[in-house]
Structures are given as C-alpha cells and as structure tokens.
Design brief:
Arginase, Chain A; alpha/beta; two-stranded antiparallel sheet; 279 residues; single chain; binds manganese (II) ion; 10 strands; globular; eight-stranded parallel beta sheet; 9 helices
Length: 279
C-alpha cells in the first residue's frame, strides 16, 4: 500500500466524487524512461499548493476526493491497460483521475467509458498502427482509442509532430487535430469551440503537449508547445462535460521539479473546475 496521498485527498472512497490512482508503468517508452516515478512525485508536489483556488473561488476541502494509491508495476503493456480498465470500472460513476506512467494507460480507461469523446492534449499524434511491434504502445494511443470510441469522437490539441504515415492515415481515416501553431494563432478557446464537441468528454493530457520550457521533464520533449494557461483554459471550457481525466508522460529523472508541480497543479485545477458540477 502506498502511504503517500495526493494533498487534500481526505475523503473515503465511498464519499468521494473523484478518485485518483497512479499507474507506475513506462515499459514502452521510446526515448527517456522514468515516467513510472511520476505518480508519487506528483503527489509530493501537490503539497506545495493552497486548497483554495483563487481563479475559481473554490476550496478543495469542500470537494470530496480520494486517492486509491498506485496500481501494481506491470511488466507488460497489455496487462497494464487491462488493470487500468478494471480499476476505472470500479470507480465509475465517480470521476476517475489517472496519474501516469506512460500514455498507453488511456487505452484502458477509455475501454471502460466507451460512449465518450476523447480529447487529447499532446505534441504527438500517437496515431501509429503499431510501434516496435507493440499495438498498445504510447505511440499508438489515439489509434487504439479511435477504434474504441469511433474516430469521429477523437480530437488532439497541441500537435506538432507526426510521421508521414501517421499524417496519411489521419487524413484517410479522418482524425481531427489542432496543431500548437493553430492554437497560437486562434487562441485555445476558439480552437476548442471549432471542434464542436457534443458528448461527455474524457480528457487525456500527455504533458509533452505543453512546451518544454514549462514542462521539461517528459519522455519525448517537443518544442513549440502550448502554455500551461492554455491547458487550464481548456479544462475550464470543457469542465461541465468532463467524465474522466489522465495526466501522462511526466518523467521525473529528467525534471527540474517544475513538471511534477505543473501536473499536480493541473489536477487540483481540474478537481476545482469539474467539482463545481459534481457537488
Ligand atoms: Mn506526446
Ligand atoms: Mn502521447
């Protein structure tokens, strides 16, 4: 049992509206590994912050949320996504918050939720059919998710890196994405409104969607990214329709501390924003 809890996660499981759990898995990492350390590092960082969220006039002590600890450290990605699926099944209809670990965890979460739109914030399209022989790789997340919820229900924001094959497949199959350059030009608010999102939303934040100047400790850093304020604005705009959230790819061995702090602060912001609609 993991004794380190996310700050202010004082509720019992039964009374909680939100349930946090960690997924310490990074076996398919292709460049920098170490995201398995992120759940606990983000928990430690969460103690830096006030319970009162100034910009939302919400106090987190008024929102019951629970930290269920970490899943086991699985050696195999399919075992990990299966365990995530089971864990989310036990949490619903409460709001699951997953702390990765690598991005492949989203596949397990979405398998349980099914009838949702999935919004990714990510530098990468993650639309490979397979990567290094692994279908549930972190580089194939949006592809696998599109097979579960339908490609018309998948949206990626902040994209600025993909292979030629991914681009061709995305065009052929109709994957909708907004580049970080589009966000810079139009603003995050307009970029999201243009997506015309209708269903309930599962939001998946691959931390590398944020610029490495703000989030240096990630598995695959990519310049020209979103700002942290773009991300919290995105959360605010979507908050009345959110049903689940994950933050993935924070990589503590390459962090100066700021990336874990940002992850923790974004989780707190999300609980504040979505909590308004759940208490
Ligand atoms: Mn990425
Ligand atoms: Mn990703």
């Amino acid at each position: 049992m993991n004794s380190l809890k996310f700050a202010d996660a004082n509720s019992s499981f039964n009374d909680a509206k939100f349930v946090i759990f960690g997924v310490p898995f990074d076996s398919t990492s292709s460049f920098r590994s170490g995201s398995r350390f992120a759940p606990n590092r983000i928990r430690e960082a969460s103690y830096n912050f006030e319970t009162y969220l100034m910009e939302q006039d919400v106090d987190l002590i008024d929102i019951p949320f629970h930290d269920a600890g970490n899943l086991d450290e699985y050696g195999n990605v399919d075992e990990m996504t299966g365990a995530v699926e089971d864990a989310v099944k036990k949490i619903l209809p409460k709001f699951p918050i997953l702390i990765g670990g690598e991005h492949s965890l989203t596949i397990g979460a979405v398998k349980t939720l099914k009838n949702v739109s999935v919004v990714f914030i990510d530098a990468h399209l993650d639309f490979r059919e397979e990567y290094l022989g692994i279908k549930n790789s972190h580089a194939c997340v949006s592809r696998r998710v599109s097979e579960i919820v339908g490609i018309e229900n998948v949206f990626s924001i902040g994209v600025r890196s993909f292979s030629r094959e991914e681009k061709n497949d995305a065009e052929k199959l109709g994957l909708k994405y907004v580049s970080s350059f589009d966000v810079k030009e139009k603003g995050i608010e307009k970029s999201i409104r243009n997506l015309n999102l209708k269903k309930k939303i599962y939001l998946s934040l691959d931390m590398d969607g944020v610029d490495p100047a703000f989030a240096p400790g990630v598995g695959n850093p990519e310049p020209f990214g979103l700002t942290p304020l773009d991300v919290v604005k995105c959360i605010k705009i979507l908050s009345d329709r959110l049903v689940g959230f994950d933050v993935a790819e924070v990589c503590p061995p390459y962090d100066n501390g700021n990336t874990s702090l940002l992850g923790a602060r974004i989780i707190r912001d999300l609980i504040g924003c979505a909590g308004k609609y759940r208490i």
